[in-house]
Amino acid sequence: MATENITTSLPTRPAKQSNTHPLAPISADEIKNAVSIIKSQWPADTDLHFKALTLHEPAKAEAVPYIEAEFHGGELPRIERRVFVTYYLRQTDKFHEAVVNLTNQSIEYNVRLGPNVHAPLDGEEIMEFERIAIEDPKVQTELEKLQLPEGSRVVCDPWIYGSDGIDDDKRMLQAFLYMRDPQNAGEADSNHYALPLSVSPVISTETKEVIRIDYLPTGKDSNRSGPQPWQPKPSNEYLPEYQELRKDLKPLNVMQPEGASFSITEQGTSNIVNWQKWQFRLGFNQREGMVLYDVRYEGRNLFYRMALSDMNIPYADPRQPFLRKSAFDLGDAGAGIMANDLKLGCDCLGSIHYLSATLADDKGNPLDMPNVVCIHEQDSGIGWKHTNFRTGRAAVVRNRELVLQSIITVANYEYILAFTFNQAGEVSYEVRATGILSTQPIDEGVEVPWGTVVHPGVLATHHQHIFSLRVDPSIDGHSNRLVYDEALPMPRSDFNPHGTGYYVQETVVEKSGGYDLNPDANRTFKIQNAGVPNPINGKPVAYKIHAPPFQKMLADKESFNYKRAEFADRNVYAVKYRDGELYAGGQYTNQSRGGTGVRSWAERGEGIVDEDLVVFVQFGINHIPRIEDFPVMPCEIVKVAMKPVNFFDRNPAIDVPPSTQEFNKSTLLSERHQQGGVEGKVDGNGDVCCTTTSSKL
Amino acid sequence: MATENITTSLPTRPAKQSNTHPLAPISADEIKNAVSIIKSQWPADTDLHFKALTLHEPAKAEAVPYIEAEFHGGELPRIERRVFVTYYLRQTDKFHEAVVNLTNQSIEYNVRLGPNVHAPLDGEEIMEFERIAIEDPKVQTELEKLQLPEGSRVVCDPWIYGSDGIDDDKRMLQAFLYMRDPQNAGEADSNHYALPLSVSPVISTETKEVIRIDYLPTGKDSNRSGPQPWQPKPSNEYLPEYQELRKDLKPLNVMQPEGASFSITEQGTSNIVNWQKWQFRLGFNQREGMVLYDVRYEGRNLFYRMALSDMNIPYADPRQPFLRKSAFDLGDAGAGIMANDLKLGCDCLGSIHYLSATLADDKGNPLDMPNVVCIHEQDSGIGWKHTNFRTGRAAVVRNRELVLQSIITVANYEYILAFTFNQAGEVSYEVRATGILSTQPIDEGVEVPWGTVVHPGVLATHHQHIFSLRVDPSIDGHSNRLVYDEALPMPRSDFNPHGTGYYVQETVVEKSGGYDLNPDANRTFKIQNAGVPNPINGKPVAYKIHAPPFQKMLADKESFNYKRAEFADRNVYAVKYRDGELYAGGQYTNQSRGGTGVRSWAERGEGIVDEDLVVFVQFGINHIPRIEDFPVMPCEIVKVAMKPVNFFDRNPAIDVPPSTQEFNKSTLLSERHQQGGVEGKVDGNGDVCCTTTSSKL
Questions:
Q1: Measured between alpha carbons, how far is residue A109 from residues A41, A57, A85, A99, B73 in Å?
Q2: What does the pLDDT look like over B315-345, one tens digit per residue?
Q3: Residues of A in contact with B550 (CB under 8 A)
Q4: Number of structural domains, chain A?
């Protein structure tokens, strides 16, 4: 593997055309190249509206020999470079999918996609449709009925239309309308979610016209009274200048005076990350955001690929248009293209390395995405400790973690997405949901059982957040199996005379399918390599999945919501690996019908014992809004972790250096009291701790 | 309330005899006073073996008016000061319980306790029995049969005997024997758990004699071959000097250059903590360790008292003596008396304030316990964020937390116990299990379904860790109710035509009892004050309980284990408040029979709607050991949280100042690469972030 150890924080650096890693995201030049090849298929003045321009990953059968040769220093096989492209003929419904072979400068296929297959939204059209929705004369007429105060500014959140099987074959948007605080309408960041309006235009994305105007129900039932004269409501701003800010928070800084412990080796558009025996390649693309490839620990294979596969947020209000609110924030938008530009010192604390990416805009031009990933270490408390009570000698190490974080904004909501590695061989994926509830108007004095009034006139409907993490394991190799352990009580017997005994039983998952947790049996899924026994106890090396139980998709099995979010009904899906099966909700989620995602793949019922299998781990939150979630919600955190089981020969963190004051430089808060706080001083001559000399008795 | 704002890190400061807060732990002088009063009840030369010397908390009916007067500045009622004492006549089974009234200098009662009521272990007797077990001639004879190498040093972990109803009325200890690495027997901290022996003496604590020697079963069945010549086994040391330590970990320091944001007001033996609108009194006692009293947010009542109530660790091996292994680490030992002396820079990182405590030893002398609690702030990532995609303006704050941490060592295991507060009104309790597995010998080549071989010849039996947090709420007052919400699908109907609707249904818990979570219904327990409606949406103010599901006690309902660990079969117990009902497993857990804990109180079936109720929240881990847990296990983390629901009128953290580079001083890792790391430089002229000027459009 190329070991040129260059670290950079500059977002623009020319891609290395030679030696382009087959799993590296496509570069700016490759974007332009693919676009020109696609354009060459059409008359010169055809306006193509690009949607996806992303690496078409090589077949695993090619990629694995490459990365093994790369790791072990062999000759690298040649792998052709391909780009996956989707596009419209602009302002038509002619949606195309193509694969361009850049190595051969050819098109492998370029087909028009069938009905009910629609592209995700993109940023440019969202802005455009916001304007169209508000400026449309029919909409203006309706808005006038609201008799809004002079100078009011109406704002629009364009939403995916969703699916209900009722004249929904064409690509449309449902525009939810709000307004800024009318008393401060010049404030461009006024929290419009506090002032929802009951008029909701529907836009055809093909014709870019408002084709219908829906009235939102604002009571307990299906009645829609249409726009009524607007009653003054208070605002609810979140910007700091509208708050009486706390004055007593002292700074807390994280310093790494000798630098960070990780190294980043830039190789074109991807990066190799090395930290505390972990090594992996980090990519970033339009749809998934961060992708981890070829994750190894001390050189041992662990994961071929790991990335968020999709998420689904279905809403609980059964009435139109809300029954169609079911967002797939990756498939309908994209965790890469929606990623925030992370600001030093605001989003990430400590010694930070930023990674930027190159994506594409709707015209097929490369689009710089600066600082979409921040990488840093953090201290996460004690890693392990033991004190021999007889001698008082303590051995303690701290738990240092490596964090790779990205934040996406999908209209009202934010998701903070982070891969975290620690020194005990554990890798986790954490999602923090924050941002603003998607709100709708409600009449005064009305309560409904499917939502919470979070502000006068504002209803936040209950909704689920269901995430799916795709884990393509290679635990000491690619022939793996999925098993689950359960802890079961032993029946009373002569051998178990007091009814205290219990045992663990392992069940092999034979076929692809969806599987659930069972906390009452402590059911724990593990991915094993049955061919590699642990050197101490002979058990197959494995990694277990720590995923919290969650309430699965509540929508019933006949619903579009259920059929479309194919991952949302099980804690785990396991399938036999097939190239191209990356997205648990299917390739095209916008106004989809289902049938193209992980549930469908699993129904093939293929054997997955000692095979190349892929596991989708679901986790989530049933968000029942509360007042405290408004105007912006405090982060709600949900996390899955992969932990070694009999993979190592002892605690992999046993060799972490002891936690010492010399290294950590904590400060003892002193006796002197100052206004509003306590002054710290470093206690250089403090208690000797964690002595490294052993005691002899 | 006294507002003398003195901060101190000195462990010894004279107790203020006047103005002693009724909830403050007893002072050294009070210990001596109580002891002398008890001793005066006995002939002068009677050797009393003290077990508990702790505050006998005043009746809540007295304490509440006191703390309300204290808070609001009224006249403080007089409350008598009492000490709870238990003691033996040394080396007898005459175990006594007494309450001493220090105000009156009298004894309120002093009774001998009945059969099957035994005291916890204490540190002095543990050390003594270790010696007795090893030096006993009968034991020496057995050990000789092992033919241990010359110079071997045998070590003993004395364990609570447990209960099986078989001649177990007397107080005994089960001594598990191990040895140091015979090739390095001078190493006092050799990991003896790697070398377990099959001879296990039983000691009468009354006579201080070995009364029986058990042979441990070492195969798959109940056979006990007795001590066989010892076969050489490798060692498995955890001390750093026996490891090849990692060399590439760079320091990470946490600095608070302007000091910390919390203030600690010392009032005798307790401390008032103020931080970010939180205020509470912190106590510390022998059994519970940290106790939080009178927890308020912006002056509003939240919790009258919060503390770990007990924990139970039952083991899965059904054979003698292991079927009796069921440790109650608070009731059998004590989270206060077992607390580590926390070392600056080793256990706690950042700007640290330490609190010390005064407990008592077995002779009734005050015992200084330095640095048993560390208090510090920490950064826990982003608190909330929203970016208006139209303007790009981000509002973001970080999540600052206050941590109060204590670590207990109970022979082989450690538990890191921490209360954490954040700026969004949330308080959580986290337990990290670490330390060393309790091991037993196993023959080579044997596997058993109730444990894992973690080292040649070493079996670590499966076991559960079940914790119980006692929460005595006072949500905006003492008349509270427990309810639970469930999210349920709406049936299909004209109103729910597409099967997508769902609603939340609230159920009031009418009577005391044990209740379970149900993740499939998203069942969420809340403690409400039905008499205080939220000003925005009228819903009763509440705090919800976030507790992870766990596998309840596996031992069957007729077992001693089940009968004794009365909390271990339910996620939540709710009871009507009664003075003195603090410990979910009962007052006396050592070799107990059950019937005196929370399950028994709950069986009273009292109404708890709009009453003074107490909630016990259980959470835990079924620990199925893996190789990676040896020689010391990486922390396994489990956590419960209490979060506001419609308690506030908006996000309580909305007024946290924005996260800015100026405040946070993150470092941008630069281009220059240094050997083994990357150098950091502070980017003073970096990107402007999180501008405070609003944009106007």
A1: 11, 15, 10, 6, 81
A2: 999 999 999 999 999 999 999 999 999 987 7
A3: 519, 522
A4: 3
